[in-house]
Amino acid sequence: MPLFRKPIAYRLIFFLIFTVVFFNSLFSFAEKKAQAVNPGVEIYSSDSFDAEVIQTIDPGSYYSISNKPKGPFYQIRMKDGKIGYVPDTDLDIQGEGVLKEKPFIGDIEDAEIQKNKKNENVKTKNKKNDDEDPDDEDSEKLSYHGITLQLINYHEETAGAVQIGDLYAIGYRNYPELSDFSSSFSWDVMAAFSAPAYYKELTGQSANGFGLWTDFEILNISALGSNTTLHYGAGPFLKYTQFEVKSQTKSFILQDMTVGVFLESGLIFHFQKLSFDIGLRYYWDKKSYGALSLGILF
Q1: pTM of the full structure
Q2: Comparing C-alpha atoms, which of 49, 42, 39, 87 is closest to residue 65?
Q3: Which helix (H) or strand (E) holds 42?
Q4: Contact status, residue 29 vs residue 69, Cβ threshold 8 Å
C-alpha cells in the first residue's frame, strides 16, 4: 500500500515550501563579502569571545558574511560550509573597508571585558595557531557528491483513473559548490528498478520495469548553524519509465518520457568526513507527485 494518499495535503505543503523559497531567494543575494584584515583571524562557534575558536582565516580569500552584524560579530560561512562568527573589526568588507574598533552599544565596561577576554584567548592559543598549516584553508572542500535514496510517491493516469504507488530509487547527486550564501547548482540521476504495485493490483499478474530521473537544479543556500545548512531550489527534470505489464493472455510494454519541473527543500548536516542530506521534493509531471530523499555526501 502506498505510504501517501493525500495529494491535496502534498500540494499544500509544497506550496508553503515554495513560498518560503521565493521570498528567501529575494534576499539570498544581499550577503556581503569580506576578507581577514590580519593573518590568523579567529572564527568563533557563537557570537561570544568566550566561545570555542573553530578555525582561523588569513587575508587574500573572500568569504560570505551576514548582511548585518550581531553585536560585534558577523556571521561567516567557511570554505567547508560551516558557519562561524568573526569580530567586525577583523574584517575588510567589500565596498565598506575596515571597521574601526568600537565598544558594545550601551555598555562600555562590558565591551572592555570582552576585549580583554579576546586578548587572553589570543595569548593562550598562539602556540596552537603557529602549528596550523596556512594552506589548510585553501584545501577546504567546496563541492559534495554522494549517494541518494528516494521514496517516490508516484502518480500515473492509467486504466481510466489516477493510480498511486511507491517507488524506491537510488542515484548519484553532485553539488559543485556549497560555500556561498547565494545560489549554486546541483544535478543528480535517479533510478527505480521496479514497477508500481498498482499494476499487479489491476491485472492480478506481476509487473516489472524501471524508471529514470535526471535533473538540474538552481540551488539556494542558507546557514542554520555551524554544522547545518538549509538548501532549497527548483529546476527541470527528465523522466523515462518502462514497465512490462501482464494480463492472463498478453504482455504489454508501457513506455513514457516527460519533461517537467521540480521543487526541493532540505537540510544538510555536516560532520568531519560525511554530510547527510534530508529533503522533500515535488515533481510537476503529467500527474504531480512528491518524494522523500536521504543522501550521504562526501
Answers
A1: 0.60
A2: 87
A3: strand 41-44
A4: no
Q: Which CATH architecture has domain 32-139?
A: Roll (2.30)
What pLDDT digit, counting tens, does each position of 264-283 carry?
999 999 887 789 999 999 99
Give pLDDT < 70 ranges for the chain: 1-31, 100-142, 177-182
Q: What cell does 267 get?
A: 537540510
Domain layout of the chain by residue ranges: 7-26+142-297, 32-139
Report d(CA 165, CA 283) in Å as an integer: 15
Q: Which long-range contacts (CB under 8 A, 24 or more apart) does 17-24 make?
A: 17/232, 17/263, 17/265, 17/280, 17/282, 18/263, 20/232, 20/265, 21/220, 21/232, 21/233, 21/234, 21/263, 21/265, 24/220, 24/222, 24/232
CATH number for the segment(s) 7-26+142-297? 2.40.160.20
What is the amino acid identity at position 166?
D
Spacing of C-alpha 259 from chain mean position = 24
3-state secondary structure of 210: strand
